[in-house]
Design goal:
DctQ, TRAP_DctQ, transmembrane transporter activity, transport
Length: about 170
């Protein structure tokens, strides 16, 4: 699923770049600005940002400060990871719920240049929050499963991930 999120984010970013390039060519090459490329670029960039955040959550690419946690015993780390992930899931679902309410209000207005409902722009937030909630639910289940097995060391998906490996 994270590959799909990354792919869609990349497509959105490419659309934003192409729209801005088109606007520059139209404005400086033909001395005539188009009304829609800037709005399309903003729309695509918002979606790229939120989808990228969701992909990052699924790949453990978000910043984690684990200086103190790393010194704790494995079982305590797993309990803490389960607690943090459960709290994140609850928070993300609450935010997605309230964001979805904002989306419904946004369908009453339209983006003037590209003629899309404003709610389609707002929808990026709840969609990404829900995708992040799925990722952190998987992390919670992984930690809870390791606790139930009586794990003595953290391995595989529970290990610290090097962001350079994800990006590169």
């Amino acid at each position: 699923m994270h590959l799909v999120e990354r792919g869609l984010a990349a497509i959105c970013l490419a659309v934003a770049i192409m729209a801005l390039m088109l606007q520059v060519v139209a404005r400086y090459g033909f001395d005539s600005a188009l009304p829609w490329p800037e709005e399309l670029a903003k729309f695509a960039f918002v979606w790229a940002t939120f989808l990228g955040a969701a992909a990052g959550a699924g790949q453990k690419a978000h910043i984690v400060v684990d200086l103190v946690v790393g010194a704790l015993p494995v079982r305590v780390r797993l309990m803490l990871a389960a607690l943090v992930n459960a709290t994140l899931v609850a928070l993300l679902l609450v935010l997605a719920w309230h964001g979805a309410r904002l989306v419904t209000l946004g369908f009453n207005s339209r983006l003037p240049a590209i003629e899309l409902p404003l709610g389609t722009l707002f929808m990026a937030g709840p969609v990404a929050l829900f995708l992040m909630a799925i990722s952190y639910t998987a992390e919670f289940l992984s930690s809870a499963s390791a606790l139930a097995r009586g794990a003595e060391e953290i391995e595989g998906d529970d290990a610290v991930v090097d962001p350079a490996k994800i990006i590169g």
